[in-house]
Amino acid sequence: MKYLVFAVLGLALLLPLPSAAQFNEKPIINLENEDKAFLNWGYYLGFNQYDFKFEYANDLPDILVNKTLGFNVGLIGEMRINEFLDLRFEPGLFYTQRDLGFPGFDDANDAIREVRSTYINFPLLLKVSTRRLGNWKPFIIGGVSASMNLGSNETALDDNSSGTFRMKKSVFNYELGFGIDFYTEYFKFSPSIRGVFAINDELVRDNDPNSPWTGNIDAMVTRGIFVNFTFE
Fold first, then answer.
1. What is the pLDDT of residue 16?
2. Is the dihedral of CA 26, 27, 32, 35 positive or negative?
3. What is the mean pLDDT of residues 112-128?
4. 2 by DSSP, 3-state: which?
5. Residue 115 and residue 165 in contact, taking contact as beta carbons nearer than 8 Å
6. In degrees, to the nearest 5, what angle opens at C-alpha 226 toward C-alphas 80 and 132?
7. pTM value?
8. What would the 3-class secondary structure string for 213-225 be?
9. Which CATH architecture has domain 2-231?
């Protein structure tokens, strides 16, 4: 997570903006009418780091999760409610990989499962902004989302005994984050950090109820951090 935070702060500082002018008492106002339109459009690129949160039936050694960096890309549709509130729809594609290490196995082929997920995400979000301060404006954003996991293997007949780790295709989440809108001469640029938290159990259990891979898991839910760079 700390690397994602550093990426946001670093890129914000390296923006090709007349940064000193952004915080002057009387800066040149860029895109003065940018937020006055009823509908706004844009796109975003970014990074993610997904994790799993496990709940266990018995007090046994935990499953280890090795997290990697993934990427995000998507579109933005924004509806203005008033000066401080905007309703946003941000459909996107999110790719990630998590490697799970199961305790109690000597053979790496049994102990390790690579979980590659490609999510199509459909979030409906409320953006709450402060009053514009020259050419920048902080905001918080939150809402709910539904995701489709294209790599779920939910309908596969094979399970972990054959090397196949299965997850449910449909995931429901809530999201919460913050960021800053920067108004350049030609477009609005917004770096932001967001947490995503699944609310439904995503695990498809093995056919054997006493499976050494899934038998001790009561629930498995996604936790993730997004760093997005938005252009509007």
1. 46
2. negative
3. 96
4. helix
5. yes
6. 35
7. 0.83
8. CCCCEEEEEEEEE
9. Beta Barrel (2.40)
Domain boundaries, the chain: 2-231
Say what percent of the chain tops pLDDT 90.
Answer: 78
> Pick from 183, 138, 137: which is nearest to 30 by CA?
183
Mean pLDDT of 177-195: 95
Tracing tokens 């449909």 back to the chain, one arrives at 170
Give pLDDT tens digits for 133-143.
989 999 999 99
Residues in contact with 178: Cβ distance below 8 Å, sequence separation at least 6, in sequence order: 138, 139, 140, 141, 192, 193
For the CA atoms of 103, 104, 107, 110, what is the dihedral angle to 10 degrees? Answer: -60
Cα four-point dihedral sign 206, 211, 213, 214: positive
Tokens 């995000």 label which residue? 72
Mean pLDDT of 141-154: 95
Q: What length does the chain have?
A: 232
Cβ burial of 165 (10 Å; 0-12, 13-18, 19+) is buried
Residue with tokens 């082929």: 109
- The two tokens of residue 103 are 């305790």
